[in-house]
Amino acid sequence: MQKTIVTCAITGAIHTPTMSDALPWNPDMIATQAIEAAHAGATILHLHGRNPENGMPSINPAHFEDMLARIRAETDAIVNISTGGSITMGIDERLAPATTFSPEMCSMNMGSLNFSIHPLANRYDTWKFDWEEAYIRATEGGIFRNTFADIKLVAEKMGGAAHNAKFEHECYDVGHLHNLAFCLKQGMFQAPIFLQFVMGILGGIPAEEAHLKHMKETADRLFGDSYQWSVIGAGAAQMPMAATAASMGGHVRVGLEDSLFIERGVLAKSNAQQVEKIVSILRDQGNEVATPDEARKILGLKGADKVSF
C-alpha cells in the first residue's frame, strides 16, 4: 500500500469567525495554524485568503504574501492555493492568488453546483462581523459557477509552462468526474491527475460509504491507473470518510474549512488537532503518512524551488 497524503484545508470560504474561535480569519492566524498543521503531519496545505480587517474571504494577493512567506520559511509542506475563492466571485478574480504566487498545486472545481450553507445562519443569534449573516443566507440563491470555459481558463493559466502547477480536481458529484474525463480527452490536463471527492456539501453528493465506492468505481473506469484520489467529508463525516478512504487506498483531507469539529458536538481547538487525530487513526489502521517530498513524487509536482513566494 502506498503512503497516505494528508491535506489540511486551513480556513476556506464557508465558515465565518462567529462559528468558532479556532477558525483562523486573518493572514497571521492562517499562517500560524498552517505551520502547526504541517508540524503535526499535514503533507499539503490547502489555502484560502481572508481580509485581516474582518475575516471576510479574500482573493487579494496582498492578503497571501506574508502568510506564504512564513509557511515557506518554516515548513516543507506542499502549498495548494485555492482557485475557488468563494461562490460570490468570478473565475478571473479567483485566479489572482494562484497566478501571482505560482504554487506547486492549486485547486480546480470540476463543475457548477448549488453550493449552499444557508441553514448555518439559523444557529446564531449574534455575529462578530456585520457581513457574516447576509453572506451565509445568500448562498440559498447562489450558484458556484465552474463552467467548461472556466475550467479551460484555469487549465491554461495554471497548467502551462508559465506555472506548471498540478491540480486538486475537486469533484462534488459523479458528473464532475465525467467532466474531467472530457477535459482530459481535450488535452487540458496530464496524468497523473489528483482527484478530491468532495462529499457532504448541500448541493453535492452525500457523504456516505456507498457513494464513495460509486465515485471510486467511476474514477477507475474513466481514468484507469493514471490517477490518485482523496476524500473530503464535510462536517461530522470528516473523520469517518477519511478513515474509510485510506482503508481503500486513497488519500485524506481534514481542516477547519471542511469541519469545525473534532468529534460530534465538540469544536476543534485548531487545524493541528484535526491533523493529529487523522494521523493517529491512519497509523492505527496500518497507513503510513507521506512526507511532502514523497507526495511530490507521487503527484509529479514541480518542486518547492519553483514557486514564487
Structural description of this entry:
By secondary structure, this protein is α/β, with parallel strands linked by helices. It has one domain: Aldolase class I (TIM Barrel, Alpha-Beta Barrel), CATH 3.20.20. The protein is 37% helix and 16% strand. The chain has helices at residues 27-40, 62-74, 91-94, 96-101, 132-137, 148-159, 174-185, 209-223, 238-247, 271-284, 292-299; strands at residues 6-9, 44-47, 49-50, 57-58, 78-81, 105-109, 166-171, 193-199, 227-233, 251-254, 261-263, 266-267. An eight-stranded parallel barrel has the order 1-2-5-6-7-8-9-10, surrounded by eight helices. The protein has a two-stranded antiparallel ribbon with strand order 3-4. Helix 1 (27-40) runs parallel beside helix 10 (271-284) and helix 9 (238-247) runs parallel beside helix 10. The protein starts with 5 loop residues before the first strand and ends in a 10-residue tail after the last helix. 50% of the residues are buried. Keywords: Metal-binding, Transferase, Zinc. Pfam families: BKACE (PF05853). InterPro entries: Aldolase_TIM (IPR013785), BKACE (IPR008567). GO terms for molecular function: 3-keto-5-aminohexanoate cleavage activity; metal ion binding.
Write the layout of secondary structure elements.
Elements: E1 6-9, H1 27-40, E2 44-47, E3 49-50, E4 57-58, H2 62-74, E5 78-81, H3 91-94, H4 96-101, E6 105-109, H5 132-137, H6 148-159, E7 166-171, H7 174-185, E8 193-199, H8 209-223, E9 227-233, H9 238-247, E10 251-254, E11 261-263, E12 266-267, H10 271-284, H11 292-299
Parallel strand pairs: 1-2, 1-10, 2-5, 5-6, 6-7, 7-8, 8-9, 9-10
Antiparallel strand pairs: 3-4, 11-12
Keywords: Metal-binding, Transferase, Zinc
InterPro entries: Aldolase_TIM, BKACE
Cofactor: Zn(2+)
